[in-house]
Amino acid sequence: MDPLMKAFKLLTSNGIGFLRLCAEYSPYDLADDGIEISLAKNYTRLASTLFSPCDSPRIQRESVALAEDRGLSLEYLEMVEKHATKLKKRGAAWRLRAELIAFEGTFEEVESYAKKRVMEEGGDTKKKPGVRLGRVVDGLRTISITDTQRRITDLEKTLDAAIKDDDQPRSAALLEPFWDLVEGGGTGLIRPEYRTVIAIGLEDFAKVSCGKGEDVVVALSDGTTMTGTEFINAAMAGSLGDKLYVGLFHPTAGPVNLYEARFASDKLRTLAMAENLVCPWPDCNVPADRCQVHHIDAHKHGGHTKPSNLTMLCKYHNGVNDDDGPRKKRKRPSRGRMRRHRGKVRLHTPGGKLVGNTQPVSSMGAMDLI
Ligand SMILES: [Zn+2]
User: Measured between alpha carbons, how far is 243 from 264 in angstroms, rounded to an integer?
Assistant: First the structure.
């Protein structure tokens, strides 16, 4: 192994050891050793939480010992801390630190578990619907609106549909359509027509059909979710369109076919949307409705336009996907490429790992329902 990589490994598997060192110095001493001052302050603050007297000395002692045993990294401990400090009740922060330090899972799994626990303990204040106005900065002001996902997404679709100049960044392109709408131009909000795809498993569909829809949540390709009951209401109101589309997915081969559709190209697009309701690139959250159809094996290399070779990708990730694979020398380092692995669309990193998107709506797509 490269010695630099070895040194990095040594550091990352000794988070507690490193913080013990930090505890003996002031951040200004550490800054003299070349650690940037704001970083040094973070480290000494974290060190004092871990090693100074607290409200749960036994849990503290045991957790620190376990973290050292498990060789947890500095990044891991900082992530634990970011979530634990949100809990203010006596003893609650240390209980969460202990849970997260003992948690077996990837960094991402621990993080999403931590968010869930903080929410349960009431540490994160829930967003409240409303319109908020900012003060003047450099002659500009900001307005932000928080409301149900349905209302905001309908507004977003209305504005998207009125964009004239597609070359501007999205936020700039949405501005004029917004003012047109406010000033009474156009015909008001677009009533959503669900050519947006809804992914639902057979078992859930059976539940919804016999009226037990309240505990079923389905995800839509515009990035929102609705309950089974809302789904039935939308069907009754005719906003699901006059045809119902049925996608057939095989657990390992991926999408197989879509029934009841008019155009081949349309049909393939719809099927790809049902599979990945958001761009499947890790951590991306662009909903499938705003994505492009991407050939997993590039057309120019003989890839076919058939369901299992297609996926949705947002404009940006479609652009950075490395269509040529390792066969080509290139100027920029490769970001990796999309591949289908055991039926599911994954990012194949330059280092050879297969990584999926863990975004919540992404994990509710068709291939995760079977
Ligand atoms: Zn993307």
Answer: 15
Q: What is the pTM of this model?
A: 0.52
Instruction: Please give the structure tokens belonging to residue 349.
Output: 């990193």
DSSP state of 291: -
String of DSSP letters for 66-107: HHHHTT--HHHHHHHHHHHTT--STTHHHHHHHHHHH--S-H
Let me know: does 246 contact 259? Beta carbons within 8 Å.
Answer: yes
Q: What is the DSSP letter of 365?
A: S
Half-sphere exposure of 287 toward its Cβ, with a 13 Å CA cutoff? Answer: 17
Q: Look at residue 190 and tell me if it is in a domain.
A: no
Same domain, 107 and 162: no
135 shares a domain with 116: no
Ligand 1 centroid to 357 CA: how many Å? 10
Å from CA of 221 to ligand 1 middle: 13
Structural domain count, the chain: 3
Q: Are residues 87 and 223 in the same domain?
A: no
Per residue in 303-359, pLDDT (tens digit) is 777 778 889 999 899 988 988 766 556 566 788 899 998 888 999 988 888 998 887
How many Å lie between the centroid of ligand 1 and the Cα of residue 37? Answer: 35
Residue pair 282/356 in contact by the 8 Å Cβ criterion: yes
Longest dimension (CA), the chain: 71
Instruction: Find the 199 Cα to ligand 1 centroid distance in Å.
Output: 19
Strands (E), 168-283: 198-199, 217-220, 225-227, 246-250, 254-259
Is residue 192 a part of any domain in this protein?
no
- 359 and 226 in a common domain: yes
10 Å Cβ neighbour count for 56? 17
Instruction: Give the C-alpha separation, 319 to 315, whole Å.
Output: 6
CA distances from 207 to 70, 210, 234 (A): 44, 5, 16
